[in-house]
Structure formats: structure tokens, C-alpha cells
Amino acid sequence: MPNRDALLHITDLHFWEIVWNPLRLLGKRFLGNLNVALRRNQEFHTERAETTADALAATGISTVFAGGDFTSTSTDREFEMAAAFLRTLAGRGLRVLAIPGNHDRYTFTSARRRRFERYLGEFLPAELPCRVDLPGGTPFLLLPGAQPNVLSSCGRIHGRDIERTAELLSACPPGPVLVGAHYPLLPEAPGYETPPLRRLRNAEALRQALGGSGRTILHIAGHVHRASYVQDPQYPGLWHATTDALFFERSGAKRRGMFTEIQVSEDRFDLCRHVFDGAWRRTGA
Ligand SMILES: [Fe+2]
Ligand SMILES: [Fe+2]
User: Fold this and answer.
1) Do 186 and 231 form a contact (C-beta atoms < 8 A)?
2) Rounded (5°) CA angle 141-143-145
3) Mean pLDDT, rounded, of the chain
4) Distance, CA 223 to ligand 1 centroid (Å)?
5) Rounded to the nearest whole angstrom, what is the distance from the C-alpha of residue 14 to the centroid of ligand 1?
6) Which label site among 73, 137, 225, 258 has the fewest CB atoms less than 10 Å from its CB?
7) What is the pLDDT of residue 257?
8) What is the DSSP secondary structure assignment for residue 52, as one 8-state letter?
9) For residue 3, how far is its CA from the centre of ligand 2 (angstroms)?
10) How far is the CA of 246 from the centre of ligand 1 (A)?
């Protein structure tokens, strides 16, 4: 069966800055900044942005789904770096579709000031959920879910958004459907396990709406910083994939920075991982 479409998935870029001004360290950002200072600055190699843009463009695939967590604590500087990276991709001829992750709504202030929309709005669809069609006609539904929290990193999909997703799905032409989100629907899968305070609230209702439709669907997510690909244990038409963080590398860790290439044919999805191992390298599923 010939391929009808292809999509690139990048997620959890986590551009970072260490904040020294105590006035900007009130509330939750104090802890987030500590995490950046102790850990993230050694694990998220955002200096690879240019090389990574080259590798994405070299695949020959024209659409990139950027699935959230562009920043670490939603600072202006982090958003500026993320916007510069997405513009670099656009400059390479790639169409970028971006949605926010929980780190892009890190504080209530950053969400209220709509910092994500201000810096990355040109890549964000006008509303979520929404449907865009890939060049070969494959429908791609983009979902909301990120929200600010006092301390946890949980997300929420509201009932009205699930209903809207079901409507969008029923209007899709026959054939496979892609769904892009920040949070995975399964709390655990071979490859990851999420504690309750890091999960998507209402995920089960959304899973039922997708799985119960009887359609062939691939749900693509990030957030867990792990790669996985699994058929839903209850709904045979529904598949779940997650991609590891784009710029990740920790000395001694087996995991590598990653992006995923998704090939869509009439009745199946084929995934291929690109990992950073001194250079970007295409690997198997
Ligand atoms: Fe993340
Ligand atoms: Fe996240």
C-alpha cells in the first residue's frame, strides 16, 4: 500500500535560562528555576538547534508537529529562543504546527498574559481542538490540555473539547486519522509510567471518544520524555505513540534526544525514530 502522508513529531524542547533576579523567582518558578540550575541546563542541549533544523529538513517531510513544552518556566527569554527555533524551521520550508505544554503555561501569570500566544502564536492554530489536513489529505486533529497548576504538572481536557473532538472526527473522510496532543492518554505503556499528578484529567473519556469511533487513529504525544508505541489494549483501531525530548542528553543515560517520523498509509502507521548520537541518525521503530 503506498504512503499517503508523513509527519514529523518534535516535543519537549525545554529551552531554558537560569533566572537570577529574586523578584522573578516568586512562587512556583523558584522550584522550576532550581530544577533548571541543577539539572536541565546539563540535559537539554538546545545549542543543537541549527543542526536539528537541518536534520528535520533533510527528511524531505514538509510538516512538523511541535507538541509542547517549548520552555522550562515560561520566561520571555525561553519563549524568544523557542520562537527563533520554529522560525528557523519555517525558513527551511517546513510547515510547523505548535501546541502548548504544561511548561508553557508554567505560572498563572504566564498563562494570563498569554505568553505562548504572543511568542508562538504564528504556529498555533486559531483554536483547539481543530483539524488540519496533511498534504496527502490525512486529517490531523490538534488537541488542548495544558493548564497552569500550583505545583503539579497535570493537564485537563474539558468535556466540551472532547465533544468537539468527536464532532471533528465524525466529519473526517474515511481513512486513518492523526491526533496530536501534549499529554498521552494512557497513564502507562511499555516505556513509561506517569504518576497521578503528571497525568491528563479526563483522559479516559477522550480515549473512549477516539477508540469508540472505530476509526484507525494514531494519538501522538510527548510530556513523559520517553519513546513508546503501543496498540490500545481495549480499542484495536487506536494506537498511541510518544516521543522523547528533542534535545535531551545526560551522560551515562541510554536515552537520547529524539524526533519521530510517522508514515501514514491507508490502513497503518509506521514510525521511525531519529536519535542524536553525536549527529542525527535515523533508526528503526
Ligand atoms: Fe516536558
Ligand atoms: Fe509536559
Assistant:
1) no
2) 170
3) 91
4) 4
5) 7
6) 137
7) 94
8) H
9) 31
10) 10
